[in-house]
């Protein structure tokens, strides 16, 4: 009897979960959706939370420190996994908002988002938490009830409604005329219903191409009307010119009409058509025709806005507990086979390079990275181009990203070193040329001292260029002092002020006194 009761309870819970998932996707996925993403937020959150709690245990302090050291070695900065894990655990313990099911996100043809998140939420406590962190920038809900808090979010094209309940969070556009389309999203629904799925996504590229083409067509239709409306201004100007000069203009000359004050500025076709007078002395556009015989947008030669997407029909992505997969449907078989062959060649090259570079990683991370690389496959599956990572366990799928990150850093490290060496060599050549010029000019003690002073400034400049990615377009030696690369801004021993000149990627520290030709 007890077993039967347990079975019924489990069955009921599964049905509730399935109904919850279905309800979320029914609200999100519609007939006019361009694409959607499903995330098993509850499962992913709990997996990361369990790992965070495990690593924060005193017994695992050494392991956590290894992760921190590896992060700082390749990506120095203030970010800390320890701090992130503690924040994650504290947030989960507060139980203000704990994901316990699906997250659905979709975008429709009007670029309106739709989001549904299943979570256990304390609406009032969560609202107070948000208000506290916003400080003076308070938000006022349109509904503030015990189990419902709702906000209106105005946008230029539509209004969004954000609702927070004990069951989750939703964000929808104000009006939603489209209906659910079960058949169109059957594959995505199937992935979402699979208990092992962590993330699934699908983009209807074919529909996007039609949407882009329609948008382009709509734009050209409006441009047709705009062009012909400019005809009216020019026609009126031509008529006034004829009445004043008592002669018709044989060839259209807008500069004459402007000089006579009939138009304020010369007018042009919005699609770069050429204006002229035809044999009947009627104003004509090389694209849109004449007022009596207009050429509308459907007859205008044009390049479709979706040209770059032409070979593609659909895109799908799937990350489950045991595999990851990306698929895109190609409508050109020759192109598909060509891309598969190129992909296999590139993947083989990456494997060889990674195997050489990952030798410096800790053994566990090296093996994890190699395992991930070996599990990557590229193949043609019917008319689909498929890139997959298979035969992995759940923790590897989630935590294995550390190995990939480390591998990427290890691969990149020698290239970064080579880039730094190239920068220093380029500046060294600049110094050498300057020193040679001074030597040819004869023995000048002050000039030699000037070269020596600038040598230390060049060294500081080289360190700045290697370390910093985002530099101002122009800067002087005072910038090197501000950043800590110079203790003081040097001057020429003869009293001249140095200038830091930049020409693309080349830099020169120039002395106005000693660098005169």
Kindly describe this structure.
By secondary structure, the chain is an alpha+beta fold. It has 14 helices and 17 strands. The protein has helices at 2-28, 41-55, 61-74, 81-94, 123-134, 186-193, 205-245, 254-259, 333-357, 363-374, 394-399, 401-440, 445-467, 477-482, and strands spanning 33-39, 97-108, 113-121, 143-145, 148-154, 159-165, 168-173, 197-203, 275-277, 283-285, 289-290, 312-320, 324-330, 376-381, 384-389, 499-503, 506-510. Strand 12 (312-320) and strand 13 form a beta hairpin. The chain is extended and about 100 Å long. The model is unreliable at 1-23, 298-303 and 399-413 (pLDDT under 50).
Quick tags:
disordered N terminus, 517 residues, 17 strands, 48% helix, alpha+beta
Shape: extended
Terminal CA distance: 103 Å
Average pLDDT works out at 77
Which sequence of strands runs across the widest sheet? 4-5-6-7-3-2-1-8-12-13-15-14
Major sheet size, sense and barrel closure: 12 strands, antiparallel
Number of strands: 17
- Structural class call reads alpha+beta
Radius of gyration: 33 Å
């Amino acid at each position: 009897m007890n077993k039967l009761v347990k079975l019924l309870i489990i069955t009921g819970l599964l049905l509730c979960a399935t109904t919850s998932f279905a309800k979320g996707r029914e609200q999100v996925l519609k007939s006019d959706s361009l694409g959607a993403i499903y995330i098993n937020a509850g499962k992913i959150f709990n997996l990361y939370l369990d790992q965070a709690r495990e690593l924060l245990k005193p017994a695992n302090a050494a392991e956590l420190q290894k992760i921190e050291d590896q992060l700082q070695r390749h990506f120095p900065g203030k970010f800390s996994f320890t701090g992130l894990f503690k924040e994650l655990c504290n947030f989960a313990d507060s139980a203000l908002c704990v994901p316990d099911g699906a997250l659905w996100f979709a975008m429709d043809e009007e670029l309106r988002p739709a989001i549904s998140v299943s979570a256990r939420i304390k609406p009032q406590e969560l609202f107070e938490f948000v208000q506290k962190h916003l400080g003076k920038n308070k938000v006022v809900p349109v509904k503030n009830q015990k189990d419902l808090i709702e906000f209106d979010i105005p946008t230029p094209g539509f209004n969004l409604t954000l609702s927070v309940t004990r069951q989750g969070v939703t964000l929808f556009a104000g009006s939603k005329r489209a209906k659910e389309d079960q058949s169109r999203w059957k594959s995505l629904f199937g992935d979402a219903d699979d208990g092992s799925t962590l993330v699934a996504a699908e983009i209807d590229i074919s529909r996007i191409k039609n949407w882009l083409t329609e948008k382009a067509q709509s734009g050209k239709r409006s441009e047709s009307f705009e062009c012909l409306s400019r005809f009216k201004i020019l026609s009126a100007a031509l008529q006034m010119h004829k009445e004043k000069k008592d002669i018709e203009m044989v060839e259209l000359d807008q500069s004459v009409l402007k000089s006579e004050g009939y138009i304020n500025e010369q007018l042009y076709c919005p699609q770069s058509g050429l204006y002229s007078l035809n044999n009947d002395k009627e104003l004509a556009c090389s694209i849109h025709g004449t007022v009596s015989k207009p050429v509308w947008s459907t007859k205008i030669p044009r390049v479709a806005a979706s040209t770059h997407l032409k070979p593609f029909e659909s895109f799908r992505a799937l990350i489950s507990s045991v595999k990851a997969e990306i698929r895109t449907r190609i409508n050109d078989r020759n192109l598909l086979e060509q891309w598969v062959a190129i992909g296999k060649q590139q993947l083989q090259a990456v494997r060889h390079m990674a195997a050489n570079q990952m030798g410096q990683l800790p053994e566990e991370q090296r093996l994890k990275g190699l395992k991930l690389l070996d599990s990557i496959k590229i193949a043609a599956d019917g008319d689909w181009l498929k890139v997959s990572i298979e035969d992995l366990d759940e923790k590897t799928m989630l935590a294995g990203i550390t190995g990939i990150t480390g591998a990427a850093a290890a691969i990149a490290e020698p290239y970064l070193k080579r880039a730094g060496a190239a920068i220093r060599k380029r500046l060294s050549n600049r110094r050498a040329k300057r020193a040679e010029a001074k030597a040819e000019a004869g023995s000048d003690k002050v000039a030699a001292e000037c070269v020596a002073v600038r040598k230390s400034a060049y060294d500081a400049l080289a360190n700045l260029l290697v370390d910093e990615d985002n530099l101002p377009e122009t800067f002087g030696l005072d910038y090197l002092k501000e950043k800590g690369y110079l203790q003081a801004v040097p001057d020429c021993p003869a009293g001249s002020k140095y200038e830091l000149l930049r020409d693309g990627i080349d830099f020169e520290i120039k002395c106005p006194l000693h660098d005169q030709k």
